[in-house]
Amino acid sequence: xxxxxxxxxxxxxxxxxxxxxxxxxxxxxxxxxxxxxxxxxxxxxxxxxxxxxxxxxxxxxxxxxxxxxxxxxxxxxxxxxxxxxxxxxxxxxxxxxxxxxxxxxxxxxxxxxxxxxxxxxxxxxxxxxxxxxxxxxxxxxxxxxxxxxxxxxxxxxxxxxxxxxxxxxxxxxxxxxxxxxxxxxxxxxxxxxxxxxxxxxxxxxxxxxxxxxxxxxxxxxxxxxxxxxxxxxxxxxxxxxxxxxxxxxxxxxxxxxxxxxxxxxxxxxxxxxxxxxxxxxxxxx
Length: 285
Known about the structure:
The chain has a single domain, classed as Jelly Rolls, CATH 2.60.120. The chain has helices at residues 109-114, 265-276; strands spanning 5-10, 12-16, 20-26, 37-48, 56-61, 64-72, 75-79, 84-87, 92-96, 101-107, 116-126, 137-141, 148-151, 154-160, 162-163, 166-167, 176-183, 188-192, 198-210, 215-218, 221-225, 231-235, 240-247, 255-257, 260-262. The radius of gyration is 18 Å and the shape is globular. The strands form five sheets. Strands 1, 13, 14, 17, 18, 19, 20, 21, 22 and 23 form a ten-stranded antiparallel beta sheet that branches. A seven-stranded antiparallel beta sheet has the order 2-3-4-11-6-9-12. It has a four-stranded antiparallel beta sheet with strand order 5-10-7-8. It is mainly beta. Strand 7 (75-79) and strand 8 form a beta hairpin.
């Protein structure tokens, strides 16, 4: 049995940080969140002329995790807890903001100097109340650490959770799954999903069909799947690449404002106070 599409959210365009163009699928007017997922941004592709910059300079977070998967370019992460990583295409960066951290995501100096294209996907994953106060953490996952599942007519990059018997390297504070799928013309992929998990497909490029009724999805669409049913299926006649996400809902109240996601408004006010007081630290020079 396959899950059908509940609804499709077209990603909307915006600008973040130092002129980084994004297409934001979550949150949207029709989809404020997809528990446990809080935000999904497709940043770029943007072509940097030599000497120009586009990234997200120093900013705080509290109460959730971030997972960034780089498709093109070279990015550098720095944070106030000592985390530092350099990312190449096919690699990922996982950060647990938890009790609070200040970080930056900027093009590598050599990319800024020579120019080039940057593109990637960033997902925010919520934390339950019991984990929001834990110590922050960071891990970068280089491209060679990401397992690839060979498919008939395609390939699947497994970053988190288990797909086709292969488990990804991204840490699991709560159960979720994340994989990047590339299908050639005429290719298809099917995967069973845990009962009760929320799931969605974001089409980065190309077009295809999903579900038992073969409903169409195209570039920059987020297809949110119905909660009932078994697995997901994606097929294409022309070729596509897509992000596949699924996660166990937390089901707790959510208070969010800008870079902070907590359970109550009082906790949001406290987060701002802690940040202004410097209790989330500063990024070392």
